[in-house]
Amino acid sequence: QSALTQAASVSGSPGQSITISCTGTSSDVGGYDSVSWYQQHPGKAPNLIISDVSNRPSGVSVRFSGSKSGNTASLTISELQAEDEAYYYCSSYTRSTSVVFGGGTKLTVL
Amino acid sequence: QVQLVQSGAEAKKPGASVKVSCKASGFIFATFAVAWVRQAPGQGLEWMGCVSTDNRKTNYAHYLQGRVTMSTDTSTRTAYMELRGLRSDDTAIYYCARQWGLNMFDSWGQGTLVTVSS
Questions:
Q1: Among A5, A99, A105, the residue to mutate for chain B (most B Cβ within 10 A)
Q2: DSSP letter, residue A51
Q3: In B77-113, which positions are buried (b, 16+ CB within 10 angstroms) versus exposed (e)?
Q4: Backbone phi, then psi, for A83, in 5-degree steps?
Q5: Fewest Cβ atoms closer than 10 Å to its Cβ: which of A7, B26, B95, B103?
């Protein structure tokens, strides 16, 4: 099972908004409303920030939002802050292997 | 609060086996599945599989079939992941995570570094 496709890196200035995309196929992202997003700071375990495409767990900032169109899911972070600098991973349920992750996107806050 | 505490780092030789534990607290253990996810140095996350804590049903990633066993002990609220026939490319941080539904991992262990080297 190939990993979902994410850009290797993205950057933005404090206060700006950025969007990270996660592209799969109709067998994973496009076929199920089961996309999650995780934030991972260096040396730390991942942290769930979005589930089921657009649900934000309790305690996660409203600046994080998720959406999906066809085979591509997106994570938008508004009002960028320095603390948002981290790696972001998407994951999707997939009929063939159950769960597949994206390759990860490094967010740099300029 | 929900907490998953994993066993310590391991150093193994190629061909050996490793068993990592993940002790849970702060929630009803028997109502969730435990997933295992690994991360090779400088690389992304890779789902390995999951084990249901009530009926012990397992679901393994295809690339690990035959080499991995995931299990749970409800009496000690502990999940285990055993990986056999270790190779150098199994060197990674191994995480356990509480799994909700199909694809949501809302609490993670601190990670266990497994190093495979001759």
A1: A99
A2: B
A3: bbbbbebeebeeebbbbbbbbbbbeebbbbbbbebbb
A4: -70, -10
A5: B26
Alpha carbons B38 and A20: distance in angstroms, whole number: 22
Contact A97 B50 (CB under 8 A): no
3-class SS of residue B62: helix
Q: Which residue of B has its CA nearest to A2?
A: B46
According to DSSP, residue B9 is labeled: -
Low-confidence ranges of chain A (pLDDT < 70): 1-2
Span B17-74, pLDDT tens digits: 999 999 999 888 888 899 999 999 999 999 999 999 877 789 999 999 889 999 999 8
Q: Do B103 and A103 touch (CB under 8 A)?
A: no
Binary contact (A51, B47; C-beta < 8 A): no
Q: Is B101 an interface residue toward A (CB < 8 Å)?
A: yes
pLDDT at residue B114 above 80?
yes
* DSSP designation for B85: S
Q: Are strands A105-109 and A9-12 parallel, antiparallel or unpaired?
A: parallel
Cα–Cα distances (Å) from B98 to A34, A68, A73, A75, A102, in that order, read: 16, 24, 23, 22, 19
Cβ distance B109 to A45 less than 8 Å, yes or no, reads yes
